[in-house]
Amino acid sequence: MTTRSYDDALTARELYRFFRAGEEETLALRGVSLRVERGETVAVVGPSGAGKSTLLSCLAGLDEPSGGEVRVGGVRISHRPETERARLRARHIGVLLQTRNLLAHLSVRDNIRLAHGAVRGRPHTAAEDLLDQVGLTGRAHALPRELSGGELARAGLAVAAANSPEVLLADEPTGELDGGTERLILRMLRERAALGCAVLIVTHSAEAVRVADRVIALDDGRVRDAEG
């Protein structure tokens, strides 16, 4: 890991997440604590069912932990009403999900513009600049259903980065992509970190692990190992 001085952008302390189905209760997260610092890229790995996607949802404020707390830049985003979490997420967090974060009825450009305009009173990256950065200038008017898997991944990343978030969370951003597109997505995530963003990637990809500053391994809802 590069020896740099970081400031925590994202912290999670003792996160628990319970799910109940009838009489059965599942404990998806068991006291997970972590930090991701500004300018840092962290990979979260582990087998299927380890709690990785549940963790990312709690970090993003898309789901509420049953216990513990999440802070972004020192501001608590957990245990707030859903509308407050959404407001804080729009200001501070970019999210790239496995299902991608695009509205089906909007073009690529309009999806970026919608995310770009979600928060007023702060600088934004222009939609055209983001389209150029992800190599989709020629696909600006395409609908999500008209894009290939690699184009969807790049468009989703442009949407996630539209408001220059402090934290960028990516859930399997390179799954089912060819090697060249995977390297492109990872390079763009690293570029966001170089601009001061805290980047966390949930992944099974050996390439994503290779480019990360640190690796956190989850198993059965617990942190089993943290490298770097």
TrEMBL record:
Family matches, as Gene3D superfamilies: P-loop containing nucleotide triphosphate hydrolases (3.40.50.300)
A GO CC annotation given for this chain: plasma membrane
InterPro entries given in the database record: AAA+_ATPase, ABC_transporter-like_ATP-bd, ABC_transporter-like_CS, ABC_transpr_LolD-like, P-loop_NTPase
Cross-referenced Pfam families: ABC_tran
SMART domains xrefs: AAA
PROSITE patterns: ABC_TRANSPORTER_1, ABC_TRANSPORTER_2
Positions of the ABC transporter domain: 10-228
GO molecular function: ATP binding; ATP hydrolysis activity; transmembrane transporter activity
Keywords, alphabetical: ATP-binding, Nucleotide-binding
Signal peptide: none
Family per similarity comment: Belongs to the ABC transporter superfamily.
PANTHER family named in the record: IMPORT ATP-BINDING PROTEIN (PTHR24220), LIPOPROTEIN-RELEASING SYSTEM ATP-BINDING PROTEIN LOLD (PTHR24220:SF689)
Name of the protein in its database record: ABC transporter ATP-binding protein
Naturally occurring in which organism (per UniProt): Streptomyces spinoverrucosus
